[in-house]
Amino acid sequence: MIRINLLPHREEKRRARRQQFFALLGMVSVLAGLVVFLGFTVIGGYIDSQNDKNEFLKQEIATLNKQIDQIKRLKEQTQALLARKQVIESLQRDRAEATRLLTELARQMPEGVYLRSVKQEGVRVSLGGYAQSNARVSTLMRNFDASPWLEKPQLVEIKAVTVDKRRLNEFTMNVFIRREAQPDAGKPGAKPADAAKDRK
């Protein structure tokens, strides 16, 4: 019987398998390293690109914030200018209104009526004075009703008093100023005086 020793042959196969395993392991390691390297490279590129975009957005946001601040300042300046314009227009109107009011009061005042106080609050004018009789106060109220600049006279109080040994009637009255109509209301450039004349 012939005996064959298979141990060297088996040892050779084991060595070949071990070499194949280590070669395969080396290739897998290299491939894994390449994949990791490529992954880090790609992700790093994305991160750098996103960081650049974020920096650009921060710069644009800062620019927009500056522009918003400028717009806010311009709005505040515009509102301040509009407020000053309204104050100036109000002062001009009130200046002319006060002159017209005193002129109209003097024109509509009947004989026997004397004013001791005139106080204006907006369009309301509070009058205080003396009259020789109640009929004189009624005449004054009718004159105010017919006035193109004054309207809605309201008698607040009237009472008998003695002034310098004379019997008089002390009265308190409110009357309202009729504001000028706007140019687009009715006729262009028409004033309340013209409107009153037209009504007559």
TrEMBL record:
Q: Which residues form a coiled coil?
A: 47-108
Which segments cross the bilayer?
21-47
What biological processes does GO assign it? type IV pilus assembly; type IV pilus-dependent motility
One Pfam family, short name please? Answer: PilN
| Keyword annotations | Coiled coil, Membrane, Transmembrane, Transmembrane helix
Query: Does this entry carry the keyword Transmembrane?
Result: yes
InterPro entries per record: Extracell_DNA_Util/SecSys_Comp (IPR052534), PilN (IPR007813)
From the UniProt entry, list the residue stretches annotated as the region Disordered: 179-200
* Keyword presence, Transmembrane helix: yes
Compositionally biased, Low complexity: which spans? 183-193
Protein name, entry field = Type IV pilus assembly protein PilN
Q: Which organism is it from?
A: Rhodocyclus tenuis
